[in-house]
Amino acid sequence: MKYGQYFNQQRTEFPAEWQMQFISYDALKTFLKTRMVDANVRLATAFPRAHVFPWTPASADEPGFDALLEQRLARVAKLTPEFVRMLDAEVEKFNAFFVTIKDKTKSRIADVLDASRRPEVAECEAALKELLLLERFVFLNFTAIAKALKKHDKWSGLQIREPYLMRTSHLSFVVSTSLLRLKPELLARLTALHAESNEGAGTLGLSVAKDDDVASATAALKSMAVGSDSAGPTRVPTPSSEDLKQMVLGTHGASQKLGPLVGLLHETQTVMISLRGPHGTDIIGGVFGCLANHHCQVVDFSLSRLHHDVTFGVLVHLHNRDVDLFSDLARTAQEWDGTLSFDVQDAKLKASKLAGSTQYALDEAPYASRVKYMATVLNERGLSPEFLSEWLNWLLAKKISVEQMKRLDSHHASLMCVEFRLSVPDTLSPEEMKSELIAISTRHHTDVALQLDNVFRRQKRLVVFDMDSTLIQQEVIDEIARATGIEEQVAAITESAMQGEIDFQESLARRVALLEGTPVEALETVKRSLLFTDGAHYLCRALKNAGFKLAVISGGFLPLARYVKAELGLDYAFANQLKVTADGKRLTGETVGPVVDATRKAELLEVIAQAEGIAIDQVVAVGDGANDLLMLAKASLGIAFNAKPRVQQQAGARINQKSLATILYLMGYSESDAVELQI
Fold first, then answer.
1. How far apart are CA 517 and CA 515, in angstroms?
2. Catalytic pick from 213, 322, 466, 624?
3. Are 577 and 512 in contact (CB under 8 A)?
4. What's the number of CA atoms in the CB half-sphere (13 Å) around residue 327?
5. Closest CA relative to residue 236, chosen from 300, 165, 299, 185
6. Please, which residues have CB within 8 angstroms of residue 505's CB and are 6 or more apart in sequence?
7. Is 583 marked active-site?
8. Which residues are 450's β-sheet partners?
9. Left (φ > 0), alpha (ψ -120 to 50) or beta: where does 469 sit?
């Protein structure tokens, strides 16, 4: 429902005399739509997106840029004052009627509160209803004023809403603090009348309170009754609707059922407030200060910062129709050089944050049938504008909404890594998205890792690594072959396995057979030649200090896996065991025990997780070869690190960067987090 429709609908609920005194919102909107159409001086938004402003006019009939601007400035200079005079007249009409009704209401309430007489309960309730109706009348009209000003600013290009609202801060409907004083007194009187007459629930639907409760509630309510009407910004502390409810009900209120009249106290307005400016903490503190002064209920907030510039948004419920809040916010914006915007919606008007029956947080895209993902985009050489453009265009084409962006790398010369929280239509399959993202990644040499955004993404506890070409840069079987002079024969078998002519177990058996007679000391030579992958020590140190369990599961050989385990501080090492001669000096060309192939790797991952009491949803696996695929699939996050094409196609995530430490980004750690974990 558009606000104009809602406003007119709500107006019909008031007495006929009151309806005539409402702001003429439709007339104001019609003026803006018909008269301001060619007056907008914000030329970038006044013309269609495809419009091009030429350097010189295409024809003599077409005005030049300077003439166009002069025409519009002249038109807006004439129409904006005319609009302001029109709005002033509406505000003065509404304010004058408010003063009249307020005086009548105050007189009626004063009569009810007269200590020398005992009014009827119905008389007291009628006075309270009129007071609540007057509050609603004020808030509806103030909202219409703010909406009309917002439309003016949009269609004219001028920004007059804040200063105009500051002008209204001295009008009676804003500063009539005596109404705030009368409400608690009237409620206290009504509570006492119900107790004295022993009428039970009555119209309010309240149970009888004890005399001590009534006295306590009356004293508490009257303690709020301070202040008087003033032409200045002096403010009366405003009790919230919850305060009033508790005081009316006394200590037994929690078990009572509120009647329809007390229910009026709970009508709220939903207000979306945004303040942008260069003073971050001051802006946040200023907004919360205003909200505290007016007893607003904070529902949600959102904050974004770009160096000194901060945008702070907050969603609140305003219970008491205290329109002075907006004047206070305007003064706060002026004090801190901020730009204020707000949108007011009555609780009966569905907020834009609702989709179906689901309530969305401020930092969420308010669309139904969505799945939340976290995407990590990474390039150690810097994220290029070309990649970012294609990436965002892909998101647009898939109707994927960006909810948050967070830079994970520290502020280097180039932007390296960004984490996106995405709201993805549930009709998109992960397989389809992964296939298309691999193509984009390949074109731009930039990694994109897509993960479901759930609690387990942020709560990993076990990381399992392959060894060859993952934790270390070499393949250990090749290094042993090189040390013993059989490199060519081993390479031929490896190539046959890569071509799919033989399986892993057969290739391992053939290559190990070639090592028969090799001195055991050759393994020590190989240890000294091993080169750890860039970032391996840094990554493992960070993970260990963060409380992770770490393991290496290798299709290589146990002596070398144990060496890697010791060097990196891992918790587990599993690999193939080479059989040695009885004197322990030479290799026999055989292995002992189960072969650590693809199936065994996946089994060992699960065994370690069970031994440590860790759920599979909390396990990360990293590898590069085909014999790692089952292990990568078993883990909740399987990362193909500089892997063969087939592995990259099938793995859940992939990294093609030089440093193994970039894995931390996929786990949600920023570079500053990683530095802090190097303890």
1. 6
2. 466
3. no
4. 19
5. 185
6. 595, 597
7. no
8. 375
9. left
**The predicted structure's pLDDT at residue 176:** 64
Angstrom distance (rounded) from CA 269 to CA 198: 35
- Angle CA 206–212–213, to nearest 5: 35
What global pTM score does this model have? 0.69
> What is the Cα–Cα distance from 241 to 296, expressed in whole angstroms?
10
Q: Tell me the two tokens of residue 194.
A: 């119900």
Q: Residue written as tokens 């892993």?
A: 504
- Give the long-range contacts of residues 519-526, CB within 8 A, separation 24 or more: 519/585, 519/586, 519/587, 520/580, 520/584, 520/585, 520/586, 520/587, 522/480, 522/483, 522/484, 523/480, 523/557, 523/559, 523/560, 525/483, 526/476, 526/479, 526/480, 526/483, 526/560
| 536 CB-contact burial (10 Å; exposed 0-12 / middle 13-18 / buried 19+) | buried
Give the number of other CB atoms < 10 A from CB of residue 650: 16
The two three-digit tokens of residue 63, written as one number: 């005005």
Q: Which helix (H) or strand (E) holds 136?
A: helix 121-156
Question: Is 324 among the catalytic positions?
Answer: no
Spatial separation of the C-alpha atoms in residues 619 and 30, rounded to whole Å: 61
Question: Token digits for 123?
Answer: 């008389």
What order of strands is seen across the sheet that includes strand 401-407?
401-407, 417-425, 370-378, 447-452
Q: Residue 284: enclosing H or E segment and its boundaries?
A: helix 280-293
Locate 453 and state its tokens.
């955004």
What's the Cα-to-Cα distance from 111 to each of 126, 190, 211, 242, 428, rounded to whole Å? 12, 13, 24, 27, 67
- Alpha carbons within 13 angstroms on the beta-carbon side of residue 564 total 35
* Residue 588, both tokens: 């026999």
Tokens at 489, concatenated: 């024969």
Catalytic pick among 453, 468, 624, 628: 468
What is the distance between the alpha carbons of residues 241 and 319, in angstroms, rounded to a whole number? 6
- Cα distances (Å, whole numbers) of residue 397 to 131, 149, 440: 53, 35, 14
Kindly report, residue by residue over 218-277, the tens digit of the pLDDT: 444 344 344 444 444 444 444 444 544 444 444 343 334 334 444 444 456 788 888 888
Closest alpha carbon to 361 in 399, 403, 312: 403
User: What is the enclosing helix (H) or strand (E) of 167?
Assistant: helix 161-168
Cβ(534)–Cβ(540) below 8 Å = no
pLDDT digits (tens, 9 = 90+) for 304-339: 888 788 888 888 887 655 677 887 888 888 888 888
DSSP-assigned beta bridge partners for residue 424: 371
Eight-class DSSP state of 259: -
Pick from 103, 121, 101: nearest CA to 112 = 121
Pairing of strands 297-306, 354-355: unpaired
